[in-house]
Each structure stands twice: as C-alpha cells, then as structure tokens.
Amino acid sequence: MDRSSVRSGEMAKSTQLIDNEVFRAYATYAAIVLVKMMLMSLVTAYFRITRKAFANPEDTASFGKGDSAKKFLRTDADVERVRRGHLNDLENIVPFFGIGLLYALCGPDLSTALLHFRIFAGARIFHTFAYLIPLPQPSRGLSWAVGYAVTISMAYKVLSKALYL
Amino acid sequence: MDRSSVRSGEMAKSTQLIDNEVFRAYATYAAIVLVKMMLMSLVTAYFRITRKAFANPEDTASFGKGDSAKKFLRTDADVERVRRGHLNDLENIVPFFGIGLLYALCGPDLSTALLHFRIFAGARIFHTFAYLIPLPQPSRGLSWAVGYAVTISMAYKVLSKALYL
Amino acid sequence: MDRSSVRSGEMAKSTQLIDNEVFRAYATYAAIVLVKMMLMSLVTAYFRITRKAFANPEDTASFGKGDSAKKFLRTDADVERVRRGHLNDLENIVPFFGIGLLYALCGPDLSTALLHFRIFAGARIFHTFAYLIPLPQPSRGLSWAVGYAVTISMAYKVLSKALYL
C-alpha cells in the first residue's frame, strides 16, 4: 500500500458526492436525526443519575458498599420510558438512514427529496417530545406513522429505480 | 451557499452510482431487508392491540381510567417474541447494510455479490418465519448463522481490499 | 433492464470511491467496529449455552420436555450484561457508521479523519472489555464518552460542510 500515491483526479471525483444538492440535503437531515438519536443516551444518563436507577453493580459503587448500593440496582419508570424511546429511534431512524442514502443516490427531484427529509426529521423530533412528556395518544402513534410512511415512500422509489434481483 | 449553482457535470457523476449493477443489486436487497425489518413494528403493534399488552400508560387510556386500564400495562409472550425478533434484525441487518455498502463499493464480481445478497435476504426472511411461527430449533439458529456468515464474508473482502489502518 | 450493458466508464468511476484514502480508512474502521459489534452475538450465545439461560421455549427443547426444560427459560446476570453491551454498541456504533460515512464524503484531511476513526475504534473496543470484565467505573463511562465525542465532532464537520436545510 503506497500511501503517498495521491491520485488527485479520482479523489476529487469521489469527494464531490457532497456537492450534489440532494446528497447535501440528505447528509444534513441524516446527521440531524442521528444526533437526535444520540441525545437519548444523555437523557437516559440524566434519568439514571437523578432517579438513582442503575443496571450494573459497578455503576452504584460510588453510593457505598453492599446493600446500601444494591438498592440502586433497579428499574425506574422514567428511565424505561427514555429507553423505549431510544429503541424506537433505532428501529425507525436506522431504516431512514439506510433507505434515505439509497434514495438520495437514485437522483430524486431536489424538492421531493427535501419534502421527504423534512417531514421525517420533524415527525421524529415531535415523536421524541410526545414520548418523553408524554403527550396523550394518538400524538406519538401518528408521528411514528408519518416517519414510517416517509421511509416506505423512499423505499418504493429505490426499488422502482434500482430493482436488480 | 448558492443553491442555484447547479454544477450539472458533477451532479450527473454522483448520481450514477446507481447505474453500477453491483450497486443496484445492493440497493435492491438492502431496501428489501430494511423494509422487512420495519414490518416487525407493524407485527408488534398488531400483537400489542390484539393481546391488549402495552408498555405506556397513555397507550391504554382509551380502555378506561384507573385500574381498568392499568391491567393492560403488561408483557405478553407473543409481543415479547416479536420484539426479540425485531432486535435480532437490528443486530444483524444493520451490520449487513453497513458492511454490504462498503463491499458493493469494493467492486466485487456481480455474480459473487448477488450470491451474497440473495443468500442473506433469504436467510433473514426465513429467520423471521422461524422466530414467529415458531419452527423447532435449529431452524432459527441455522438461518441466523447463514446470514452472519455472509456478512463476515463481505467484511473479509472489504478489509482485504480497503485495509488502511 | 439490459444486464449486459456494461457502461464501463461509469462503473469504473463509481467503484473508485474505494481508491480515496480517507474512504479506505473509513471502510477499514467501520468494518472493524461493525464486526466487533457482531461478535457480541457470539458472546451472548456462549453465555446462554454455558449458563443455560434462554429466552425461547424452542431453544430449551433439547434439555427435555415440560418442567425440566422450563427452568432454563430464565434471565442470567452475565447474559443480560452482554446484551446491554450489545445494545450500547447499536446505540453508538450505528451513529458512528452513519455520521462517519457522511464525514468521509465531506473530504476531511486524511490525518484528521484517521485520528477520529482510530480513537473511536479504540474507545469502543476498550468499552467492550470494560463492560464484560467488568472494570470499575469510570472506565466504561469514559470510553463511552470518548466514542460519543468523536461522533459528535464528525457530525459538526458534516453539518458545517454540507448544511442544506
């Protein structure tokens, strides 16, 4: 492997994907929803610490030894709620990331693509508030369904454009 | 940022990734298994509603107030089974998506790539049926192992082609 | 669809992404951490079998019928620990994969990119050992935070380079 061989022409080409406006829009919204998903870890940590509800014995060691620490090895309703929200993000944002990437490479109209990305990001941010506050149903259910429908719409475009079985 | 600057030459180049036959095959099978994974959400919702087994108090509000609704805040064996299947998909389909993308960009033979993608997709679809019906073991275990081996085989190709530590 | 139409010029271009040194480094470290995440499945299987702690009735059928098999349908502290580590990988390695891909396409300096990828991979491998041994806190917490910070740093670069709302 010759690390000094910079084939500048090819490198320039490959990095220009980010100059495509649809791809830039995808990169923006994908980064936003992935960072939003990552924030769930901080919310979980916040609730674990304020509710003193931990999953691992080594996490409670600073509260003392033996039984005095063991009582913090417990589940807490708020912690479990955030964790369900986090898992729901994994189940929905990960397919958006994957299918959205393929969709962005299929050359959709910029305005159509932006519509998909914006609605998805908005729906998932609303979903998080609906889950954590919590808002009465069907707020959370509807925001979930909107994000789901957007992803399925992009999958349909990918399969009709790229189908190669 | 000048949105009106359409550098059409570069845009054309970037979107042509989807004209590569290996990449089209990858996009097709990746979209199929991601959509299959998303369907697990619908199966979970179906079992939660028919078994009346929910995780959030706000989800049971339509069944009445107080204790009459609280009894639906429970776990159900069928719901938990679907959720385990969904998590298993996340644990296996997500690595396939990621490693498969890198693999498709490594320029493998079309026929070898198709073999990998088809076996993986078939194994994971079978795995879902084996989990949900459920079929006696080792049906589920073997279908899991086949998908796992396909992904490791693609990872080996990626690392031997692209290695740059 | 004319499968025999090989537009070699375009195919050559698309597959050359892997010739970009930053992208090769990304592919290498992304494959390493995804394979590391997949290994958690094997560790879970190992503990389930050695601890005889299973989640599905069909998995215990080989231990006999009725109550003699039912007692193996249980949770085990070691199995649950590995599963928490696996879920933590999903929550952190998946955002790294997604944001790292966008980052690699943003054309960062090779040395900066390598620094991000190496620190992330090292932090997550250390995190796994810290979780499974387990090491006393804050070993696990710090290694989690390092990987998290690296991913946020890449997300910042992606958003400042590609922002298109």
UniProtKB/TrEMBL annotation, chains A, B, C:
One of its GO terms (cellular component) is mitochondrial outer membrane. SUPFAM superfamilies: MAPEG domain-like. The keyword Isomerase does not apply. It comes from the Eukaryota. It holds the Pfam family MAPEG. GO terms for molecular function: glutathione transferase activity. It catalyses: RX + glutathione = an S-substituted glutathione + a halide anion + H(+). It is a multi-pass membrane protein. Its EC number is 2.5.1.18. The chain crosses the membrane at residues 26-47, 93-121. Its main location: endoplasmic reticulum. Keywords: Acetylation, Endoplasmic reticulum, Membrane, Mitochondrion, Mitochondrion outer membrane, Transferase, Transmembrane, Transmembrane helix. It is found in: Endoplasmic reticulum membrane; Mitochondrion outer membrane. Coiled coil: none annotated. Homotrimer; The trimer binds only one molecule of glutathione. Conjugation of reduced glutathione to a wide number of exogenous and endogenous hydrophobic electrophiles. PANTHER family: MICROSOMAL GLUTATHIONE S-TRANSFERASE 1. Belongs to the MAPEG family. This is Microsomal glutathione S-transferase 1. It comes from Meleagris gallopavo. The lineage of its organism: Eukaryota, Metazoa, Chordata, Craniata, Vertebrata.
